[in-house]
Amino acid sequence: MANNSRHIKTKHKGVFYRESVSRTLRGKPDRCYSIWYQDAQGKGHWKRIGWASEGVTPESALLERMEICRDVGRGLPIADAESFTVGDAVEHYMRMAKAEKKTSADKARAHYDKHLGPLLHALPLVAVTSTMLTEITGRLLDHLSEQSVVHLVAFARRAVYRAIRDQRYRGTNPFSSRRESAYRMPAVDSARERFFTPEEATTLLATLQRSSRPLYAMSLLSLRTGLRVTEIFGLTGQSLSPATGFINFTDKQHKRARVHADGDIFEMLAEFVGAPGELLFPTADGRRQRRVSSTFSRTVERLGLNAGITDDRQRITFHTWRHTFASWLAQSGQVTLQELMGLMRHKTLSMTLRYAHLIPSQQREKLSIVGQALANASNN
Question: Which of 21, 285, 350, 367 could be stapled to 3 by a disulfide with Cβ–Cβ 3.0 to 4.6 Å?
Answer without folding.
Answer: 21
